[in-house]
Write a structure and sequence with these properties.
The chain is an alpha+beta fold. It has eleven helices and 15 strands.
């Protein structure tokens, strides 16, 4: 499988100016491609092909006075920008036709020079390389200083240079992972676990472990409010406002980075220790419209589950998602008696049938594991789930689990 490895870049002033030119040229070519297709649609003509757009918007445009500055950047950057526009239209039409899963996508829009996130991509034919001193040598930009936080496991196929809202630069390398090396890194185990995600505790495991929620946004809320107030008092279009906006963006980036690091550490630990993992399919969008919205966004459940999905696929683990309508908090995990719904303030209860005292979250995690078919037999061996499972998008399959497993 393909993964991205991201590293911080520290370009000097000259290199930052060169990157700004590259960002601008890529943005102009993308907008020209969108405009050409919209003009063709308005005139009732067929969309121009990718080859026609490349010839007209890149090759021929470079020799015109209006677009001569396109020659100041690598041609690969411009070609990749055209590919991004082509992919955006393919995704849009696939979304219209119902062949693309996920939320409905709109038509591609023009990019603005005021967008806080800018990016360019270099493929292998751009002849970029990593120098002997550890710098990233990019065509027509130069050798940029990189902070290597870990070694690249293989030769990258492409690199994307990104400037985020906080003004930071990153290099994102695409790497093809080695299945043999991944298997050696995390050998198989017989342990299985169920995970109940929440707000009081970020995660409660079926073995009784409770992982506190770090609440990164809540802890930084005072600082964020102060920075936001300062931004609101600055005159629009002034340099002071631009500096204040960067201060707000850096504060938010610090919170997002801390949350992402927490998710990475926890997901890697769970994947390395367990062969089978069961989680609940939470209605994050619905919960984000309630009074708990800020806490739900602060927890970042969707990002955490996505990490579990790709890491399970990479390391040969089984991740099963059970339906959100499974009554995990209403059923006794010992005898299976359904005791009915309980208000959120009830954190513990006693089963009327078997007289077992339950912790609400631990009992839910046990039920999640059992609903996924990851229960433990009497001899202590994990019970394998059934191989035929319905997709949760199908009608009437809300209570059935979805399996994510490496081929």
């Amino acid at each position: 499988m393909q993964l991205r490895y991201r590293f911080r870049l520290y370009p000097n002033a000259v290199q930052q100016a060169a990157l700004a030119r590259a960002f601008g040229c890529a943005r102009v070519v993308f907008n020209d491609a969108v405009r050409a297709r919209e003009d063709a649609r308005a005139a009732g003509q067929p969309f121009p092909t990718a080859a026609d757009l490349s010839k007209k918007l890149v090759t021929q445009a470079k020799i015109t006075p209006e677009r001569s500055w396109l020659g100041e950047v690598s041609a690969v950057v411009l070609q990749q920008s055209l590919r991004d526009a082509e992919r955006a239209y393919r995704n849009f039409f696939a979304s219209l036709g119902g062949t693309r899963r996920g939320p409905r996508l709109g038509a591609p829009r023009f990019k603005s020079r005021k967008d806080h996130r800018q990016s360019i991509r270099f493929t292998a034919n751009a002849r970029w390389n990593i120098t002997g001193s550890g710098r990233l040598n990019l065509p027509k930009i130069g050798a940029v200083k990189v902070r290597w936080s870990r070694a690249l496991p293989a030769t990258p196929s492409s690199v994307t240079v990104v400037k985020d809202a906080a003004g930071r630069f990153f290099a994102s390398f695409v790497i093809d992972t080695d299945p043999a090396a991944d298997a050696a890194r995390m050998p198989e185990t017989e342990t299985t676990i169920g995970i109940d995600l929440g707000l009081t505790h970020f995660a409660v495991l079926s073995d009784g472990t409770k992982i506190d929620s770090p609440r990164f946004l809540r802890r930084a809320e005072k600082k964020l409010k102060k920075a936001q107030r300062e931004l609101s008092r600055k005159q629009k279009g002034s340099k002071n406002r631009a500096e204040a906006r960067l201060k707000v963006a850096r504060a938010h980036a610090k919170v997002a980075d801390a949350r992402r690091e927490f998710h990475h550490q926890l997901s890697t630990k769970l994947i390395s220790e367990n062969q089978g993992i069961a989680v609940e399919d939470l209605a994050v969008k619905a919960l984000a419209r309630t009074r708990l919205a800020k806490s739900v966004h602060d927890a970042g459940w969707a990002q955490f589950i996505n990490m579990l999905i790709y890491k399970a696929e990479r390391y040969g683990r089984t991740l099963i998602t059970i339906g959100r309508f499974e009554p995990t908090s209403q059923v006794c995990s010992i005898c299976g008696t359904k005791d009915g719904p309980k208000p959120l303030n009830v954190r513990g209860w006693t089963c009327a049938a078997c007289d077992t005292r339950h912790d609400r979250d631990t009992n839910a995690a046990l039920n999640i594991r059992q609903a996924a078919g990851l229960a433990v037999s009497a001899c202590g061996a994990p019970v394998s789930p059934e191989p035929v499972l319905a997709q949760r998008e199908e009608t009437g399959s809300h209570g059935l689990p979805t399996r994510h497993r490496a081929a």
